[in-house]
Amino acid sequence: MTEACSGHSRDMRSIEWYRVPGRGFARRGQSVAGYYSTFTHSLVMAAGYEKTGDVVRHEMLHAILQTSRHPRTQFLGACASIVVCEANCKKDAGPWRPPRGGFVVLPRDSFEISSHAELLPREADGDRWLTLWVNVRNPRNRAAGVSIPPRADPVTQPTFEFSVRGFPGRAISGGELATDSSTLVLAPQETKRFLFEWRVGSTLNGVEIVPGRYLVRGGYMHRYAPFDTVMVQP
Predict the structure, then answer these.
(1) Containing domain of residue 17, as a range?
(2) Contact 9, 3 (CB under 8 A)
(3) Do 108 and 89 belong to one domain?
(4) Rounded to whole angstroms, what are the CA distances from 108 to 59, 80, 219?
(5) pTM score of the predicted model
(6) 23-68 residue pLDDT tens
(7) Domain check: are 161 and 223 in the same one?
(8) Which of helix, strand or coil describes residue 107?
(9) What is the average pLDDT across 135-160?
(10) What residues pair up with 115 in beta bridges, in sequence order?
(11) Distance CA 219, CA 158 (A)
(12) Buried b (16+ CB within 10 A) or exposed e, 204-221
């Protein structure tokens, strides 16, 4: 996925992979979850994040691009749907610039929302994952931004969202916070996507899901697609 979104490829066998115990390790006075070295071509992950896809793919993107920087066109553009990009990443990427010619601000129902949930085949390491792709499309021939719902906090307003309802009576929901303006403005005919994923395990939370039958759907700015019914098997 990281190679596909970036448009670049690299033999991952050429990289030395390391795992550090715990939920983080110190680098330049800060606690980080991962780090890629352009000098030694090594990728280091905190053990607590080795199963967190968007964090691992963030470091893989560094390795594929062979840079320690965070180009906006990649980390907040082409690969924004599958890699995490938090405060330091956004700072390094630089400010968002609106599209040439500006854009119109439209209500949420002006955009097309869809989602697709799927239980993937078992991986080589024995893990199994439930994925949910959420899509929002601008059907117009002009760039458009979505208006923030009334009374919503623009700092903490989720953009892409998920809702998972299990049986009997188990449910989780959440979303990706709108911390960058690029998530709120779509080019003409553009479709933005976001990936949520859960590893099949023993807990129902934001990163794991237990076996059972679920209704799963995605949304964008509190507008949701229809539910998919998914049987999660161990």
Answers:
(1) 2-93
(2) yes
(3) no
(4) 33, 21, 11
(5) 0.92
(6) 999 998 889 999 999 999 999 999 999 999 999 999 999 999 999 9
(7) yes
(8) coil
(9) 85
(10) 134
(11) 10
(12) beeeebbeeebbbbbbbb
